[in-house]
Amino acid sequence: MRVLIAEDERMLADSIAEGLRAEALAVDVAYDGDAALERLGVNDYDVLVLDRDLPVVHGDDVCRAVVESGGSVRVLMLTAAADVPARVQGLSLGADDYLVKPFAFEELVARVHALGRRARPADPPMLARAGIRLDPARREVYRDGRYVPLTRKEFGVLAELLRADGAVVSAEELLEKVWDEHIDPFTNTVRVTMMKLRRKLGPPGVIETVPGTGYRIR
């Protein structure tokens, strides 16, 4: 899942981003509304965590632009205004959910995950193929009954390959969905991660490289 944090309080924005990355999410950060709109125009996000009182372009206008674009990104609006009329107004702009500051980080994570499930087709309780079983909720992977410890990025790559259900997934798609905008598009990170993932899954090999196209699980 890829998330954009649009929040002008830099310490808060960076703290949210760090916490969500620890949840194996790909996270980008924008510190004003104009930067948020720029990133939304370039990248495909599942969830936008949007501070309502953004500078340059107000959060309300960012929310309107997201709704008018007709995309699938879900909006979690953050605000210091706790009164009911403010919450109703935020939701009427097209926000999918509303969270009042200060908030418990665990609640924000739960809401982001819930919105992410709405932004894409729901995963089954267990992703399985070729003897691999991946539990998205518990972030656990088993190969032929053997537990396989994976890093966050290895888990994210494997999840995307399993979701493709045998179709080829390009390195560019993996970079888009598993990493964030700071990754060098010419990096060999995907290839290195794939090598480590294959090693951990063990023989026989199930991840196939399709030359010039990408990867798939046979």
SSE layout and pairing:
Layout: E1 2-6, H1 10-21, E2 26-30, H2 33-42, E3 47-51, H3 59-69, E4 74-79, H4 84-92, E5 97-100, H5 105-119, E6 127-129, E7 132-135, E8 140-143, E9 146-147, H6 152-163, H7 171-178, H8 189-201, E10 207-210, E11 214-217
Helix pairs in contact: 2-3, 6-8
Domain Response regulatory: 2-116
Pfam family, one: Response_reg
GO molecular function: phosphorelay response regulator activity; transcription cis-regulatory region binding
Mean pLDDT: 87
As a whole number of angstroms, the C-alpha radius of gyration is 18 Å
How many beta-strand runs? 11
Main sheet attributes: strand count, strand direction, barrel closure: 5 strands, parallel
Name of the top-level CATH class of the largest domain:
Alpha Beta
Q: Which runs of at least 5 residues are low in confidence (pLDDT < 50)?
A: none
- Strand-pairing-aware structural class: alpha/beta
Shape by Cα distribution: elongated
Strand arrangement across the biggest beta sheet: 2-1-3-4-5
Modified residues (4-aspartylphosphate): 51
DNA-binding region: 124-218
Keywords: DNA-binding, Phosphoprotein
Domain OmpR/PhoB-type: 124-218
Q: How would you describe the overall organization of this protein?
A:
With 218 residues, this protein is an alpha/beta fold. It folds into two domains: 2-119, Rossmann fold (3-Layer(aba) Sandwich), CATH 3.40.50.2300; 127-217, Arc Repressor Mutant, subunit A (Orthogonal Bundle). The protein is 41% helix and 21% strand. The protein is built from eight helices and eleven strands. The strands form three sheets. A five-stranded parallel beta sheet has the order 2-1-3-4-5, with helices on both faces. A four-stranded antiparallel beta sheet has the order 6-7-8-9, with helices on one face. A two-stranded antiparallel sheet has the order 10-11. Strand 8 and strand 9 (146-147) form a beta hairpin. Helix 2 packs parallel to helix 3 (59-69) and helix 6 crosses helix 8. The longest helix is centred in the middle third of the chain and has 15 residues, at 105-119. The two termini are 23 Å apart. GO terms for molecular function: phosphorelay response regulator activity; transcription cis-regulatory region binding. It comes from Thermomonospora cellulosilytica. InterPro entries: CheY-like_superfamily, OmpR/PhoB-type_DNA-bd, Sig_transdc_resp-reg_receiver, WalR-like, WH-like_DNA-bd_sf.
